[in-house]
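TEACHING EXERCISE
Course module: macromolecular assemblies
Task: Read the component lines below, then compare them to the predicted structure of the full complex.
Student: A.B.
Group: 4
Components provided:
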Amino acid sequence: MLGYLLKRLTYTVPITLAVTVVCFLLVHIAPGDPLNAVAPADAPAEVVEALKAAYGFDRPLPVQYAKWLGRAVAGDLGRSVATGRPVAGEVLSAVGNTLLLAVVGGAAGFLGGTLLGCLAGYFHKTRIDRVASAISVVGVSVPHYWLGLLLTIIFSARLNWLPAMGAGPGGSGNWTWDLAHARHLVLPAITLSVIPMGIITRTVRALVAEVLSQEFVQALRAKGLRDGQVFTHVAKNVAPTALAVMGVQLGYLIGGSILVETVFAWPGTGFLLNIAIFQRDLPLLQGAILVLCLVFVGLNLLVDLIQPFIDPRMRRN
Amino acid sequence: MRFFVSVDNLSVRFEAAKPVHAVNGVSFDLAEGEVLGLLGESGSGKSVTLRALMRLHPDKVTRYGGAIRVDGQDVLGMAPTALDSFRGKTCAMVFQDPILAFDPVYSLGRQISETIRRHEAVDQATARARAVELLERVQVPSARRRYDAYPHEVSGGMRQRAMIALALACRPRLLLADEPTTALDATVQIQVLLLLRELQKEMGMSVIFVTHDIGVAAEISDRLAVMYGGRIIEQGPLAEVMREPSHPYTQGLLASTVTAGMRGRRLEAIPGMPPDLTALPPGCAFAPRCGLAVDACRAAAPLPVSAGGRQVACVRAAFPGTTKIPRPARDDTAHADHQTSLISLPVPEGPRC
Ligand SMILES: Nc1ncnc2c1ncn2[C@@H]1O[C@H](COP(=O)(O)OP(=O)(O)O)[C@@H](O)[C@H]1O
Ligand code: SF4
Ligand SMILES: [Mg+2]
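Instructor-supplied answer key:
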């Protein structure tokens, strides 16, 4: 068990290094010269040279990488070309907002999906199953941004119940736990929850139906266990796989909410990436991608580390 | 005499596009402390019969007919809560393959103590101590440590012992054993069988023991019932049925068994296929494979005829004067070993095994 944990931990080292190399190289393989964003196209040669030296672009790549990595480890991801502010600060606050949205939206989706999935699995091939499965299909196939726009039109424009933009009153980018801010969270979280809801419904439905068809469920009934007690057994069998799928989904929510964040002007990493790409702000882009990838690696690690604690079949040694 | 278990004309049908007539009019009685061996090919309806005794089949698709009484209780008419208390307490089951019958994510001991706590008002510590005692009783070594082991962590024999401990947790008066040794190696098979017999004697339980292995049935049963096509075609005291089988199918089974004296000889397996339970013929289900079949056999299913504690359902056996059906030649030293020998061959498996 301890061996497994250590082994799993060591695996993340090369992955993390690979992530940093890719993020570093991103600046150099991206089309166009990173200096274009800061220096005018007709800038004199000596100005370009000076800028190159200032950003360190005149050194050999491995040296640049080593220096960059050293600074990144110390928490310095450089400065945004566009705003001149430190990238680390911008990225961290954006990651915080994205995590918040992903966790709240994900939790809503996972809760709804688990509920619908259990119902569908328990009442396999009945009308309840068909209704739940239909909801799940709609959830997976409805386009994110379209749903976001629809919700905005209905609940913001028409009914004026909920705000449509930003993470707080007056476009505040700093989240605080109060009602005024929470109101801003509702629509983007609902929009984001729809896909994981559909996927978790499908997953849990299949898992529950599969577990219920196993011999041991009959054996539990043969012991005289009541329905509720049998359900506890089913849940514990379904949990490991369901949680693993939820971990992957949470990863997608963190990495893939660009469209939703853009529709709702939610100041998260998706929104930030959008800005960075359009303004060709390479340090910002690099920093945002690096932090996102690290969050992803960390999340996978967390899921793998939790797994053996909830699934005894994985505790081999 | 009041029997402890009394099954009267039980039928079990599974609703589907093609309904499965798995059990078709099974009747038998079992006294307290008696062991009934239920013998038959794979797919003959043994497990379905056994599970019906606990009403374990899925409610939605199962149609029961007839009556089952256990300890004076009407199993098929019981309210759900009474049924839950009946299961595991009055009547318990040992499943064929313990790796499938144990919940993989609960420890073995937990699954035993859970059963105890379901039926008796004891705390976890007491239940745990009882479970460890039970594991010791079924000869699981270092039982205290094995309590926390998960099903995949122990050997097949150990798992089956734990399954027996689980079944015996609340001292049931009727034990249903569904081929409990089939999934085990030969040597472990014998150990588990001996253990079951010993526990049965000690606790005075009634046992219904399903098997497709004549040697195993001979080892443990007081009475033997032979199933074919969802019917009991012959039943009676073990020794009598073994010595003088009167149904052509039973005769065929015994002829195809290898005993010590017959080793090396070619088996006379019964040619043909087991019947299709979705389309049973109106007459005797064995007719297509029976060398003695006559027109009367195909007209209507032969009703069981009883005489002196024995019962047989065969047209030819029912007619006066034809009860003694010519048996295939076999040497007489052979079946003398039957009752003690475990060296035997399973009944030929059907295509669905
Ligand atoms: N739940 C079920 N639904 C439909 N058919 C079933 C079900 N359970 C068992 N059967 C069928 O009933 C027949 C008898 O099965 P079974 O009693 O398990 O045979 P065996 O004598 O080998 O134990 C088989 O053909 C099997 O396919
Ligand atoms: S009833 Fe007829 S077909 Fe059936 S076993 Fe007896 S002799 Fe054979
Ligand atoms: Mg069976």
